[in-house]
Design a protein that fits this description.
The protein has about 350 residues and is mainly β. It folds into two domains: about 10-220, Collagenase (Catalytic Domain) (3-Layer(aba) Sandwich); about 235-335, Immunoglobulin-like, CATH 2.60.40. It is about 10% helix and about 35% strand. It has helices at about 65-80, 160-170, 215-225, 230-235; strands spanning about 10-15, 20, 35, 40-45, 50-55, 90-95, 105-110, 120-130, 135-140, 145-150, 160, 180-185, 190-195, 235-245, 245-250, 255-260, 265-270, 275-280, 285-290, 315, 320-325, 330-335. Strands 1, 2, 5, 6, 7, 8 and 9 form a seven-stranded mixed sheet that branches. Strands 16, 17, 19, 20 and 21 form a five-stranded antiparallel sheet that branches. Strands 14, 15, 18 and 22 form a four-stranded mixed sheet that branches. A hairpin with a 5-residue loop joins strand 12 (about 180-185) and strand 13 (about 190-195). Helix 1 packs across helix 2 (about 160-170). The N and C termini lie far apart (about 55 Å).
């Protein structure tokens, strides 16, 4: 590497990007990624703009290189258009390289991984572990599945733009959001019945193009990592604790519902004291709901060794909570009970 200081690099494989829907074909609810730098945990993010990316020249039936580039470009443009976020992206050209090669360039493209039978795509980082800055981020799209770039989708094919939008959220530094509802299937997988975040870890059914638009939680997430346009001054936050039997509860999913706009933004309680903070909220009154993380695989949000508590009933806070413009609500306590 150039320069007088040799920086320590390490590859971080981000949690599975999108879990496959086997149909007919982890502060906020979107978790941010962190890395240990000395005694502190810093947020994983890009230090320089624009984020440059390459498109790999591999193809799959029905999707040529230009089709892949155009679908990915639309997805990047969607994230870049968020007015309260400062992130930007730049297409650097096509390449013969394949995603997951440690070559110093961020590459998006197809790879065949039939062993990953429920993984549509995933994102992998190369980080500067002395700063937490992203050096390289590759997105591989699993060519084992059938893909579509059609404007209205195609039956039994997954929408490339929708999956790219989710993965670019990861590439930008966002983890998964828990704002979705699922039901278990006999084969052990899950069917999405409702989703209010692009960063929800389970994809919609093949043929659907409904996941091409960012939701309130996604917008709050990218704006929190790359704030711009008065984001901090113009939004508010709600903070508090989730407790059970008087003790803090780790891993509870806390949702703020804006009565005026209908927007949902959420958080997890992420300390042993059960503390949470939901930022990026439109100022005004909110309904607060606390629920267990039981609509997706916990490992898509937290490390397998993390003691997430699922043994409690859904609870609404007993009064409305106002998110003040440019400020925090002050601590509230939501008491939940065992199932």
């Amino acid at each position: 590497m150039s320069g007088s200081t040799c920086r320590s690099l390490k590859r971080l494989a981000i949690c599975v990007g999108v879990a496959v829907m086997m149909l007919a074909q982890p502060t906020f609810a979107y978790l941010k990624f962190g890395v240990q730098v000395g005694t502190q945990t810093v947020i994983v993010k890009w230090a320089q703009m624009p984020v440059r990316y390459f498109i790999s020249d591999g193809t799959v039936p029905g999707v040529g290189v230009s089709d892949l580039q155009a679908a990915v470009a639309r997805a990047f443009a969607t994230w870049q258009a968020v007015p309260t976020a400062s992130i930007s992206y730049q297409f650097a050209g096509t390449t013969t390289a394949r995603p997951l090669d440690d070559d110093g360039q961020s590459t998006i493209g197809f790879r065949s991984r039939p062993d990953l039978e429920r993984v549509l795509a995933s994102t992998h980082f190369l980080l500067d572990s002395s700063t937490g800055a992203i050096v390289e981020a590759d997105i591989f799209i699993n060519s084992t599945f059938q893909w579509s770039v059609a404007a209205n989708g195609e039956a039994n094919k997954f929408d490339l733009e929708s999956v790219a939008l989710h993965e670019i959220g990861h590439l930008s530094g966002l983890g998964h959001s828990a704002l979705g509802e699922t039901v278990l299937r006999p084969d052990g997988g899950r069917t999405v019945t409702a989703s209010d975040a692009i960063m929800f870890p389970i994809a919609l059914a093949a043929g659907s193009v409904a996941a091409r638009t960012l939701r309130a939680d996604d917008i709050a997430g990218i704006s929190d990592v790359y704030p711009d346009g008065g984001f901090t001054a113009q939004t508010g936050s709600i903070s508090g604790r989730v407790t059970k039997n008087g003790a803090g509860l780790f891993g509870a999913h806390v949702v703020a519902f804006n009565l005026a706009t209908g927007a949902l933004v959420a958080a997890f309680s992420l300390t042993n004291q059960g503390e949470f903070s939901i930022g990026g909220l439109t100022p005004g009154p909110h309904v607060i709901r606390v629920e267990p993380l039981d609509d997706a695989d916990i490992n898509g949000f937290f490390d397998a060794t993390t003691p997430v508590d699922l043994d409690f009933r859904v609870r609404f806070y007993d009064r409305l909570v106002v998110a003040p413009r440019g400020h925090d609500s002050g601590m509230i306590e939501v008491k939940v009970a065992s199932k």
